[in-house]
Design goal:
2 copies of one chain form a homodimer. Helix content of chain A is about 40%, strand content about 20%. By secondary structure, chain A is of the alpha/beta class. The first copy, chain A, folds into 2 domains: about 1-15 and about 70-200, Rossmann fold, CATH 3.40.50.1000; about 15-65, thrh gene product, domain 2 (Alpha-Beta Complex), CATH 3.90.1470.10. The interface of A and B includes residues 110, 113, 204 and 205 of A.
């Protein structure tokens, strides 16, 4: 009995902050932890920028809805969900992900949350739990599930290491070099194959 | 940030063994733990009966598909999934639930598994984890989720007690009498109301 844990941004949907920068034309939203290493400071900067531009939650959800899931993501996900349990583990926020979760037919998502005022202004953010991807995989293992985890970047590697089977999906070359222990899937067909190979003989259909 | 944990049989779908008895006309499939208190013995008896009647997994999945979810279950579930994370916690088996999960748009399900031979004969059953409903709720709480759990019978009460908020859904009077601490929902509108009241101010939309 297996749970497939998938990272969200870069695996099923575009990078949300990059997409917001692209679609709003606000270049300063492109900053990442490479530019501002302190994540809390980066998030406060991002929320200030949205506020300065008068962008409330409704505006942002409309922009995110326009991004859509990545090409092929819906078919890939429905195929996996028809054979295994899937939980998406992401460091985004429920309110941002929501328009895209609707388009992915509401898979289960563990992430974080924004604090939104009644006028739609984003007041703050709440991290549910530090290192929550790894901890969720550990919790599923403690419930006697076989676990496969797939993600694309450094912040997924603790989850990949915790899982019975970790798979890198379209990672940057630097991540491949730093984590040679994980197989690499370059498209959804390869990711499907990696998941099925990992769970061979443990498929609950 | 909340997870709504729902029992499956009696809440979203009919009781599977009763449905199998109804649709196949095999009355001996109606036996429950009231008749055979030892669950392992009961399950072995049920699998023997299926085998004697030559019913393999494909036949059974066809019968279960015909049952369909309970009236209104799909709408209720999609409504809840659009606002909260939902995980279904059940003591059924993945292979039995599968045709109905398809009709419910593949919500995440934690349950148990059957061992099926290549000719479709059900050889055995595997309980993933004893008392797994309660343990799943405890795991979600350890991941900092608020939890609401709803179920209809005695075997749901440890999960209801473990959750931040437990709700009985269409329970027998005896369960209401024995567990007066849990609110009772008599239809999906009341269950929706009970969930939203429990999570008021903690809704992640």
């Amino acid at each position: 009995m297996a749970i497939v844990c998938l990272d969200l941004e870069g695996v099923l949907i575009p990078e949300i902050w990059i997409g917001l920068a692209d679609l709003t034309g606000i270049d300063s939203l492109r900053a990442t932890t490479r530019d501002v290493p302190d994540y809390d400071q980066l998030m406060r900067q991002r929320l200030s920028i949205l506020d300065e531009h008068g962008l409330g939650m409704n505006d942002i959800q409309r922009v995110i809805a326009d991004m859509g899931p990545l090409a092929g993501a819906h078919e890939f996900l429905m195929d996996i969900r028809s054979r295994h349990q899937v939980v998406i583990l992401s460091d985004t926020f429920y309110q941002f992900a929501r328009p895209l979760m609707a388009r992915l037919d509401w898979p289960t998502l563990f992430c974080h949350e924004l604090e939104v005022a009644s006028d739609g202004r984003i007041r703050d953010f709440r991290i549910r739990l530090a290192d929550h991807k790894r901890k969720a995989v550990a919790a599923f293992r403690s419930l006697n599930f076989d676990t496969v985890a797939a993600g694309d970047s450094y912040n997924d590697t603790t989850m990949l290491a915790e899982a019975d089977h970790g798979v890198l999906y379209q990672p940057p070359q630097q991540v491949i070099d730093d984590f040679p222990e994980f197989p690499v899937a370059r498209d959804y067909a390869e990711l499907r194959e990696a998941v099925e190979t990992a769970l061979e003989g443990r498929v609950a259909v």
